[in-house]
């Protein structure tokens, strides 16, 4: 059985745009973890490397029960191995589709975890910028956890506005589609509102004719988003009020993550207790810094700058 450092590969789990994911066992502690294997050739790619570097650095500096935990990073001649907390309950997209939509109580259970994580990173000045059902995993303890920080961005202290168009169309805020400078945190709120809508209804807020050509479908979806042309899902008044506030076209009128956490719909779950964040592991932060420096040197050597 293949292994890297103390981690023995147990089975293949999935493949994504950035690499393959395996279930592994830490042979020292017995802990079962996830290992994302990324080809060094891809990392050296000029378009991919900045996102990967950004993801590792920020992920090493955050620790919250609503965020998949980065545990370790290893490198050999061919790959980089990113060791993560294993969430074997799948992602919310599959869960919502399998259930045909979630009852409000169950949606609230997960959404409090999600918004707790978003509130945490926003208070650190970090916007996720790719919040969607596929980027929310469920642990064996039925805890929803935000993952995939490849597009996240630290807002500067003097200006929170961003210009890079990113994310997925159906989750994109109107200001992003209009290609305006935008506040990444308020764009996250819009995306989280789309997530909540989809969780309770099993479909997105945007309705298009499936017989339209792809370019027409995209244009019609973009129109509905920029005009705020939505029909609220069936549900309680509190649910509809929260979704309407998060899917407000003018970002200045959207609630903050902390506001969402205090919304009456969120407080209906009396048994919920907010998870506490903990301080980052300084050894992990230093390890990631060293790995990034090593990768930078390899890139320069490949480009012939050294």
UniProtKB/TrEMBL annotation:
Alphabetically ordered keywords of this record: ATP-binding, Kinase, Nucleotide-binding, Serine/threonine-protein kinase, Transferase
SUPFAM superfamilies assigned: Protein kinase-like (PK-like)
GO terms assigned for molecular function: ATP binding; protein serine/threonine kinase activity
The keyword Membrane belongs to this UniProt entry's keyword annotation: no
Any Pfam family matching the protein: Pkinase
UniProt keyword annotation of Secreted present: no
Domain Protein kinase: 7-266
Alphabetical list of SMART domains matching this protein: S_TKc
List of residues binding ATP: 36, 134-135, 148
Active-site residues from the entry: 130 (proton acceptor)
Name this polypeptide is given: CAMK family protein kinase
Cross-linked residues, Glycyl lysine isopeptide (Lys-Gly) (interchain with G-Cter in SUMO2): 132
Superkingdom classification of source: Eukaryota
Cited InterPro entries: Aur-like (IPR030616), Kinase-like_dom_sf (IPR011009), Prot_kinase_dom (IPR000719), Ser/Thr_kinase_AS (IPR008271)
């Amino acid at each position: 059985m293949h292994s890297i450092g103390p981690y023995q590969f147990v089975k293949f789990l999935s493949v994504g745009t950035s690499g393959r994911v395996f279930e592994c066992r830490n042979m020292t502690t017995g802990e079962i973890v996830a290992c994302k294997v990324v080809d060094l050739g891809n990392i050296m790619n000029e378009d991919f490397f900045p996102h990967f570097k950004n993801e590792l650095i920020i992920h090493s500096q955050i620790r919250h029960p609503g965020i998949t935990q980065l545990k370790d990073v290893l490198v050999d001649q061919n790959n980089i191995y990113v060791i993560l907390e294993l969430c074997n309950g799948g992602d919310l997209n599959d869960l919502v589709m399998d259930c045909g939509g979630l009852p409000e109580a169950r949606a609230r259970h997960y959404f409090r975890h999600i918004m707790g994580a978003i509130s945490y990173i926003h208070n650190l000045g970090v916007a996720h910028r790719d919040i969607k059902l596929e980027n929310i995993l469920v642990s064996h303890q039925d805890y929803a956890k935000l993952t995939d920080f490849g597009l996240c961005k630290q807002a500067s202290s003097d200006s929170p506005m961003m210009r890079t168009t990113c994310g997925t169309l159906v989750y994109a805020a109107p200001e992003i589609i209009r290609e305006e400078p935008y506040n990444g945190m308020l764009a996250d709120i819009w995306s989280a509102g789309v997530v909540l809508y989809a969780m309770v209804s099993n479909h997105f807020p945007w309705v298009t004719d499936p017989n339209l050509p792809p370019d027409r479908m995209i244009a019609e979806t973009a129109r509905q988003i920029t005009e705020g042309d939505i029909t609220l899902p069936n549900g309680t008044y509190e649910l509809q009020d929260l979704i309407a506030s998060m899917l407000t076209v003018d970002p200045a009128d959207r609630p903050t993550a902390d506001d969402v956490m205090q919304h009456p719909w969120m407080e209906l779950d009396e048994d919920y207790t907010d998870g506490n964040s903990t301080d980052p592991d300084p050894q992990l932060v230093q390890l990631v810094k060293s790995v990034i420096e090593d990768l930078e040197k390899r890139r320069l050597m490949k480009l012939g700058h050294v």
